[in-house]
């Protein structure tokens, strides 16, 4: 706990601009407090009211929250609805049929627009196509696709049939994909021939084939392939089908299958503190409700807004704020295939200007990388672009340092756009602690206050709340509709990870340290308190990387820690002991390179350690436990001032301190 100390030295404060507040969904702090009080007074009534107002129910619910089997909470369980119906059909009925749903910009700059009518027809044709392959309610379908309209279509088509999708980020390796396919028990895999990123074609189908060849995937009888580039692919007759062929001649309507509000809409894998990723299972009703509500509250979405979330659809941000939230809100959104630095690092600003984006949502890592680029090259500085369409900015996925916040606010937002720093997680389904831009005053580096209905608090190791100004463990005191329902296939791990007995068994443990400001009660997130790293906004378990390293025949032992990095937030630093003598000079570079590509193949390029240091041993206690805190200090290049009296082999520190 002592490690979590107040770093809040930030005194700059930004009031919501009056032009913004006067037309916002929530106008001012009185309106915010009124919503919070409503939730306090009648928690179930509060959520029921929004669920009735914002979603279409095929069969209305009679019960709101069921806590009888805590922590396996259920919401609106006897109600029936369909997520795809709510995202598409409702927009055809309420006058949005010819409104643009998605402005797709390809890697090479080609722009294609899809109206709600067109998107609906595509989803229906594909859902009908999936039906011809026998895919039905309750099946699991893994999606391994590029950023594309086809990926949204695939997710929505699954939702339409009541099949549970599990999207795997396109940067994961065959092995990671295989692990997810078998864990979730998929019957089908939807992929693409290749993906285009930064002018390069990268294979997906070949990796998918490798994954399926690893064995244990016999249940996957169908592989459906979106033809993105027309590049060469291997083909298994009978199993593989082109997406385009499957959709040809299919009717452009398809009845949406009503499912229970608790029906799993998707499973999304994320890293935890063990070597095995967790399949976070989300519901249909509660999840969609919060996706819709946060579009209104945090993003203040208006009918004419152009919304752009730059996250990859393989992460939760792309699920909630691309595939579901904006569509459920009837919004127009930009969907971008490529990367922010191609053809140059002005791409985001150029796209905002060309598409007249009003609400822009990106990751702190992207902002930090673009700051560096803009400082190096005046021509791609945001001031060179007309960004006057912007009215709101957002960030998510990792802490944003106040300097980056200020740069974003000044140079991208022209000083006039509120910046919503949104704290949330794969497990929470949507924003948890975030400003309401028409109400909340902003402090750079703080995600400010919990959204109405979210009962966030900071506690000590025994579950007791700590006074404001003291650091502690971030928890959520009451269940909320879009929370994780369980870990797929592992309810015991769900209970242990998120509702630990040490905290009394009733508090949701986010896994982050946090502190509230003494005066404003604002939250600042201090980072993970478990063995999870956040590299460029990607969650990585240190154990996962360690198991990948030790599976290499050269490696005897490995320990992975994070160290602060100016651009990526944290960087991966691995300490490795080989089965042979410690390598030096060229040999050490060669083996480090070999191990980095090994990790890339085992997990994916995002998990490659930035630095690998070799030692004869690792610093251990007499009982053989690796002293990670020492490794963290070594990785940072710190002089060790900590107590090392329990260290078995103090001599090792000097060896490992040399990078
Ligand atoms: C971190 C991403 C500080 C945090 C939506 C959390 C943040 C993890 C913020 C979840 C923020 C997310 N400020 N830290 N605004 N948002 N985090 O599951 O450590 O990929 O636990 O969900 O990212 O990452 P995940």
Automatic annotation (TrEMBL):
Belongs to the ATP-dependent AMP-binding enzyme family. It is an enzyme of class 6 (ligase). ATP binds at residues 397-399, 421-426, 512, 528, 539. The keyword Hydrolase does not apply. Catalyzes the conversion of acetate into acetyl-CoA (AcCoA), an essential intermediate at the junction of anabolic and catabolic pathways. AcsA undergoes a two-step reaction. In the first half reaction, AcsA combines acetate with ATP to form acetyl-adenylate (AcAMP) intermediate. In the second half reaction, it can then transfer the acetyl group from AcAMP to the sulfhydryl group of CoA, forming the product AcCoA. The keyword Nucleus does not apply. It comes from the Bacteria. This is Acetyl-coenzyme A synthetase. InterPro entries: Ac_CoA_lig, ACAS_N, AMP-bd_C, AMP-bd_C_sf, AMP-binding_CS, AMP-dep_synth/lig_dom, ANL_N_sf. CoA binds at residues 197-200, 317, 536. GO terms for cellular component: cytosol. GO terms for biological process: acetyl-CoA biosynthetic process from acetate. It catalyses: acetate + ATP + CoA = acetyl-CoA + AMP + diphosphate.
């Amino acid at each position: 706990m002592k490690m979590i100390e107040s770093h809040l030295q930030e005194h700059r404060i930004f009031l919501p601009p009056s032009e913004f507040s006067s037309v916002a969904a929530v106008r001012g702090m009185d309106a915010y407090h009124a919503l919070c009080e409503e939730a306090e007074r009648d928690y179930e009534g509060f959520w029921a009211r929004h669920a009735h107002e914002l979603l279409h129910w095929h069969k209305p619910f009679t019960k709101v929250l069921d806590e009888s089997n805590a922590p396996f909470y259920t919401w609106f369980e006897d109600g029936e609805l369909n997520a795809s119906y709510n995202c598409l059909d409702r927009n055809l009925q309420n006058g949005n049929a010819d409104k643009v749903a998605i402005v797709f910009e390809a890697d090479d700059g080609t722009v294609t627009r899809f109206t709600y009518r067109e998107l609906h027809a595509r989803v229906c044709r594909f859902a009908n196509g999936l039906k011809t392959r026998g895919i039905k309610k309750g099946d699991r379908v893994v999606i391994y696709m590029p950023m594309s309209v086809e990926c949204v279509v695939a997710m929505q088509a699954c939702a339409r049939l009541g099949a549970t999708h599990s999207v795997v980020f396109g940067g994961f390796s065959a092995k990671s994909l295989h692990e997810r396919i078998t864990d979730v028990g998929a019957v089908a895999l939807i992929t693409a021939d290749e993906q285009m990123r930064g002018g390069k074609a990268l294979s997906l189908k070949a990796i998918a084939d490798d994954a399926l060849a690893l064995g244990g995937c016999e249940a996957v009888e169908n592989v459906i392939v979106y033809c993105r580039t027309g590049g060469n692919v291997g083909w298994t007759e009978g199993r593989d089908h082109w997406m385009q062929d499957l959709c040809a001649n299919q009717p452009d309507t398809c009845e949406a299958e009503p499912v229970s509000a608790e029906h799993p809409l998707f499973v999304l894998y994320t890293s935890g503190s063990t070597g095995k990723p967790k399949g976070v299972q989300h519901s249909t009703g509660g999840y969609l409700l919060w996706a819709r509500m946060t579009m209104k509250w945090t993003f203040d979405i208006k009918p004419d807004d152009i919304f752009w979330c730059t996250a990859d659809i393989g992460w939760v941000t792309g699920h909630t704020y691309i595939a579901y939230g904006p569509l459920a809100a009837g919004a127009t959104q930009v969907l971008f295939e490529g990367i922010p630095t191609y053809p140059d690092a002005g791409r985001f600003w150029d796209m905002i200007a060309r598409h007249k984006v009003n609400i822009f949502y990106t990751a702190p890592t992207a902002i930090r990388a673009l700051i560096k680029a803009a400082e190096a090259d005046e021509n791609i500085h945001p001031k060179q672009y007309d960004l006057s369409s912007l009215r709101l900015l957002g960030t998510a996925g990792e802490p944003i340092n106040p300097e980056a916040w200020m740069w974003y606010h000044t140079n991208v937002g022209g000083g006039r756009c509120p910046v919503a720093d949104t704290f949330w997680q794969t497990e929470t389904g949507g924003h948890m602690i975030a400003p309401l831009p028409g109400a909340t005053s902003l402090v750079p580096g703080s995600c400010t206050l919990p959204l109405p209905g979210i009962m966030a608090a900071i506690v000590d190791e025994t579950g007791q709340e700590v006074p404001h100004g003291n650091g502690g463990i971030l928890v959520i005191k009451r269940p909320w509709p879009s929370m994780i329902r369980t870990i797929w296939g592992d309810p015991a791990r769900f209970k242990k990870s998120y509702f630990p007995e040490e905290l009394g068994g009733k508090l949701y443990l986010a896994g982050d340290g946090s502190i509230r400001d003494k005066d404003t009660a604002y939250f600042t997130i201090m980072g993970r308190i478990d063995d999870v790293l956040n590299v460029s906004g990607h969650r990585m378990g240190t154990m996962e990387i360690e198991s990948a390293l030790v599976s290499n025949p050269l490696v005897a032992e490995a320990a992975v820690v994070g160290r602060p990095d100016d651009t990526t937030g944290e960087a991966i630093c691995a300490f490795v002991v080989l089965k042979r003598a410690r390598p030096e000079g060229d040999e050490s570079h060669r083996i480090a390179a070999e191990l980095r590509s090994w990790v890339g193949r085992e997990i994916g390029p995002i998990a490659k350690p930035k630095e690998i240091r070799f030692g004869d041993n690792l610093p251990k206690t007499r009982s053989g436990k690796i002293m990670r805190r020492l490794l963290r200090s070594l990785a940072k290049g710190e002089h060790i001032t900590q107590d090392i009296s329990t260290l078995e082999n103090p001599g090792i520190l000097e060896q490992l301190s040399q990078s």
